[in-house]
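Notes from hallway chat w/ T.B., transcribed later so I don't forget. T.B. wanted the structure written out for a chain they're using in a teaching module, and asked if we could keep both sequence and structure tokens in one place. Agreed to drop them here.
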Amino acid sequence: MKTESKNSWEVIRSESGPDLGLFKTRYDWAKNPRNAKTIKAVVLESRDWVNIVALTPAHKILIVRQFRFGVGRDTLEIPAGIMNAGENPQQAAMRELREETGCVTDNWKYLGAFDANPAFMNNICHSWLALDVIQKFPLQLDEGEEIDLAELSLDEIRKEINAGRMRNALSLAALSQVFDLRIQQGDAG
């Protein structure tokens, strides 16, 4: 298998689909280079996202618990959100951290970008590390948000992952850029 990127599918045409608010749909008709068949693919278009691994001066990691409609339950995640028009990724990360946790810091490190779900989405998630965060403000939640904030140690996060209570893929991807999330001896129960 070659690892270099290539775009071997020829897009014959594209058509706009319904605007779903958070996402816009697009239909692409593309030719499979293997068999020359044309398929209709659905693409969800969205602005890019950010997420933040936020560490307190006591080396605790900020975790938000919030209800997610897609899975119909509360999830444990790192602070995250969609970029506003005109924002760069760091501005969006700073805003989301302040809105969801009330915390601020001047100590930021870019961790990189991840494809959100390249099978049918066109956006990416920019991950950030925020060090020495301090809570200075009340939460500023969107109408559709209700958040409980927790400060967890790395061992506590590993236990939440191992127990299946923390499984947001983009949160885990960002956390894995900073920490070794593998189950440590004694974690398996």
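Follow-up for T.B.: The longest strand covers residues 10-19. Might be a good example for the class.
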